[in-house]
Amino acid sequence: MAEEDESQKTEDPTSKKLSKARSKGQAAISQEIKSWGIILAGAMGMILLAPGIMHDVSHIATKFIISPHAIAADFKHLRFVIAEVLLDLGIILWPFLLLLMVVALAGNVGQIGFMWATEKIKPDVSKISIVNGAKRLVSMRAIVEFLKGILKLIVVAIVAFGLAMPILHDLQVLPFFELTDSLNRIYIIAIRLMLGTVAVMTAVAILDFIYQKYAFTKQMKMSKQEVKDENKQSEGDPQIKARIRKLRVERAQQRMMAAVPEADVVVTNPTHYAVALKYDMQTMPAPKLVAKGVDSLAQRIREVAEDNDVPILENPPLARALYAAVELDDEIPPEHYKAVAEVIGYVMRLRGELRDEPQPLN
Question: How far apart are CA 245 and CA 331, in angstroms?
Fold first, then answer.
């Protein structure tokens, strides 16, 4: 039954489902990217900071090697010595550790941005269920993660071994060098191993990032019925429908009012109805209605027309008839040609004259 349900999920997840999953802390994130970043930062940190760190560490070690008698034998004083050494090491290493912490955080933020999901910290009995835990252990995702971990370990071990073989001689002769020289040789060996590991982890991180994106998208896929139900739910919300209707009306009115300054004439009744007509004998077979409205909208049409010197004519029967019979941006129907022709002709005769008050068409 589960396989059948999965086979029905053929549709890409909607933005609503992805947003809901994100609010629960679910997102496509690759831990290998974070591991790669930490290892890369570690390698870069070693290259940039290690010489100074090695110098400070050798200075601390030399102090005790040269003057071993300065270390008290009793436990009470030994505790202070250990605390002093740890404090010195902390002061030396804190920039390096801070760098790793920042990179670890950036590894997550860089993939999914800042995400605060309270669902992740809420108590959930199902998380401690033995049955659910067993299901998670034997899930395909868990198996893939396990195999990926084993494969990564094998590859890194092979690369590390391949890099270590040529330098085994250097490791064998380390005891014969002075402390500073030994630390320098260890530093060089560590850099080689780190860079080799970074190269392997780069390939692993890229492959894992692609896989995590694929696996998450597959997990989020929806059936056709789920998409239909979600659309139905969204469109069925009275508040959403009202808001959509309001936006549509506002946009339509904005487009309509923008067309009024280009109109040739506005016909009114005179206060309750207003229709704006445009006609170009060269390009239009018939005049076109570019704006219409009643009451407050009619008043706005008249105001815009006055502000842009568009002639306003009072013809109540024609204004009401055109408002009822003609849709926005439609041509005037033949039954109104004669009345509209008289209006257009009248306007053409008046074109170029200033008109302070609208005049009725006799």
Answer: 26
Q: Any bridge partners for residue 277, and if so which?
A: 265, 289
Tens digits of residue pLDDT in 31-87: 888 888 888 888 887 777 766 766 666 666 666 655 555 555 545 666 776 777 778
Which is it for strands 288-294 and 273-278: parallel, antiparallel or unpaired? antiparallel
| Residue that the structure tokens 């902390």 belong to | 90
Q: Give the pLDDT score at 261.
A: 92
CA atoms within 13 A on the CB side of 26: 11
pLDDT in tens, 183-198: 677 777 777 778 888 8
* pLDDT single digits (tens) 302-337: 999 999 989 999 999 999 999 999 998 899 999 999
What DSSP assignment string belongs to 28-46?
---HHHHHHHHHHHHHHHH
Domain 243-360 top-level CATH class: alpha beta
Query: Interior CA angle at 93 toward 91 and 95, to 5°?
Result: 95
Under 8 Å between Cβ of 71 and 78: yes
| pTM to 2 decimal places | 0.47
Cβ contacts of residue 142 below 8 Å, gap of 6+?
136
What does the CA dihedral 244, 250, 253, 259 come to, rounded to 10 degrees? Answer: -110
What pLDDT score was predicted for residue 275? 94
Helix axes 224-236, 238-259, angle to 10 degrees: 70
Domain ranges in the chain are: 2-232, 243-360
